[in-house]
Amino acid sequence: MDSGAAGQSRSEQRIGLLNGFAAYGMWGLVPLFWPLLKPAGAAEILAHRMAWSLVFVGVALLFIRRWGWARELIRQPRRLGLVAIAAAVITVNWGVYIWSVNSGHVVEASLGYFINPLVTIAMGVLLLGERLRPVQWVAVAVGLAAVLVLAFGYGRPPWISLCLAFSFATYGLVKKKVNLSGLESLTAETAVQFLPAVGYLVWLGTRGEATFGTEGLGHAALLAATGVVTAAPLVCFGAAAIRVPLSTLGLLQYLAPVFQFLLGILYFHEAMPPERWAGFGLVWLALSLLTWDALRTARRNAVRLTAARRAAAATPPAVQGEREPAA
Asked: Is 177 exposed, middle or buried (0-12, 13-18, 19+ CB in 10 A)?
């Protein structure tokens, strides 16, 4: 690789990292946004988020003129069904998250995204028959112990965390099968959500319970901005995903729940008794084990790939020809 190509590669990686930090930073700081939308309730905020997200991504797709995927998707009923499932699951995730933040449960919501990788691994074993390495089994066991400790600390199961973790893990599983890029996937999902969301907002208006247009122009603008808040980090994430290694994205994903956790304690002043610290400590231990195992496996695979390439490069062409099977 010449110096120009190497410089371009490093520049692309820097752009990717900046976009990754921007995406997970926005997701981590979003708890500051939802309280600004009061006195709107969680259901009204959710409906506006679904409706305005479609408007925002629709404008973005008009700008980049990328619509071929939609025609292909419409011809595939199975994929359309999966999109509808993804839309339903992410609706639950968004709704629970908005409600939890505006009800003073930011720390418990952050826990949901901390344990999400553990839930994803467990679902891979139970639903897809995947095999785990020993360290991954230990991490899952430690994560289960953490949930039990937190259930004792809260006096109930941490249902907000579990709902967020399982809904987002299910969403990721379905999206993997749909196989659409981030912006296109969000467009398809919000297209499914749009009519129910608008219908609910109209119903609220007929009952005189809608806050859009009754709380001033600033409040209406903030509700409309839910589309930007939803789509902007996804656009940055898409830019990062094509420029940085998956292992780097895997590490960056912890930025969002870390920011949310710190906001819950330092800004919203939520209580953290010793048993909750113990539960979170176990979760962080499990994630440390997963991260260490993933980095070790990635290094081993990289070493093996490098060795295989060197062996292939060192093999004379004549010998390579002899090894090729006859036609």
From this structure: exposed
Please state the rounded mean pLDDT for residues 48-76: 84
Which pLDDT value is given to residue 77?
87
- Identify the DSSP state of 315: S
Mean pLDDT of 76-81: 89
The pTM of the full predicted model, rounded to 2 decimals, is: 0.85
Ramachandran category for residue 316: left, alpha or beta (phi over 0 → left; psi -120 to 50 → alpha): beta
Give the three-class secondary structure for 33: coil
Q: Taking the CB of residue 163, how many other CB atoms lie within 10 A of it? A: 18
- The Cα 276–Cα 270 span in angstroms is 11
* 29 pLDDT more than 90: yes
pLDDT score, position 322: 54
Q: Which two tokens stand for residue 301?
A: 């695979």
Whole-number Å distance between alpha carbons of 178 and 123? 17
Query: Rounded to an integer, what distance in angstroms lies between the CA atom of residue 171 and that of residue 94?
Result: 11
Sign of the Cα pseudo-torsion (26, 30, 31, 33, in order): positive
Amino acid at residue number 176: K
pLDDT at 190 over 80: yes
Per-residue model confidence (pLDDT) at position 76: 87
CB atoms within 10 A of CB 83: 22
C-alpha to C-alpha distance for 250 and 245, rounded to whole angstroms = 9
